[in-house]
Write a structure and sequence with these properties.
Blueprint (H helix, E strand, L loop, with lengths): L18 E4 L6 E5 L8 E3 L6 E3 L6 H30 L28 E4 L6 E4 L14 H14 L6 H19 L11 H12 L9 H20 L5 H7 L14 H21 L3
Antiparallel strand pairs: 1-2, 2-6, 3-4, 5-6
């Protein structure tokens, strides 16, 4: 047999048929699945919308798997070719006999994929994929999908009962709100939808609707607090400053203190976020 000039290594899927990918920009994993069509040459991160070639999104474990499996296949082929060469060279010899032994081929252990919780079917291209975390787009066609927005709310609710840090869930609430507003804002993508007041003003002035209509006052206040805590965590290491106290109407004596993260506050904010989603859904057609 002739040795191959190249080897193609298939990356195994998980138990549900998904092949996992890792965004090279935001470093969050997702899964894609192909049933009756090939994967596209270009895919999109469902979280940050980074676009790139399919191999650009391979997870490190997949590179390791492909390398080790490739080496195993090369070793097997080299040993087989060596046996064949010896057998041909010694054929007809009266003094030397060659009996090839069985070549042991130890297949690379099946890659263990990480768990990704939410199964999705794109509303536009009907491709199958999974998301882990707060997302907004289909990785196949790059289309923003209202189904993901609904999934985001469910993910946050589930996260509240896990060991994931509350600080990270504060960020998820803000990103889920931003993705929701961007989806219904159509082409107006440059608005700062991480600001509740600016978002409220945009939809009032441009779309003629009140996105905060009917919200429980305590839920709304808690959502505002969640946003401010997330911003202060992102930009000031979680240390309360003058802007934080001014935005929330707090006494300046809290400045310099570290913000605290509360599950009850997140639960209340999630109710407000769900109500905002309901207002946008009933008042606007995406």
């Amino acid at each position: 047999m002739a040795l191959k000039s190249h080897y193609e290594i298939a990356i195994p899927a998980d138990g549900k048929g998904y092949t996992h990918r890792l965004c090279p920009d935001c470093s969050i994993k997702f899964g894609i699945r192909s049933v009756d069509k090939d994967f596209p040459d270009t895919i999109h991160c469902p979280y940050c919308n980074k676009s790139g070639r399919l191999p650009d999104f391979n997870v490190p474990e997949q590179f390791d798997y492909a390398t080790q499996e490739g080496l195993r296949q090369i070793k097997y082929d080299v040993m087989k070719e060596l046996q064949n060469s010896l057998a041909r060279g010694l054929r007809g010899s009266k003094n030397v006999k060659f009996k090839p032994a069985r070549i042991r081929y130890d297949a690379q252990p099946v890659l263990v994929q990480s768990e990704i919780p939410t199964d999705m079917v794109c509303s536009s291209c009907e491709s199958l994929y999974e998301i882990y975390g707060i997302a907004s787009r289909c990785p196949f066609c790059g289309t923003e999908d209202v189904k993901i927005l609904d999934a985001n709310l469910a993910i946050i609710e589930k996260e509240l009962d896990t060991d994931r840090g509350l600080r990270q869930i504060y960020n998820d609430v803000v990103i889920a709100f931003q993705n929701l507003c961007r989806f219904y804002a159509s082409k107006d993508k440059k608005i700062n939808f991480q600001n509740i007041s600016l978002s409220e003003a945009y939809f009032r002035d441009k779309q003629g609707i009140e996105i905060l209509e009917g919200l429980d006052s305590q839920n709304l206040q808690d959502m505002r607090v969640v946003f401010e805590k997330r911003h202060i965590e992102q930009h000031n290491g979680g240390i309360i400053d003058a802007k934080y106290t001014a935005n929330l109407g707090l006494d300046s004596t809290t400045q310099g203190q570290k913000v605290t993260y509360l599950k009850s506050e997140l639960q209340s904010a999630l109710k407000a976020l769900t109500a905002v989603s309901g207002n946008l859904r009933t008042k606007l057609k995406p």
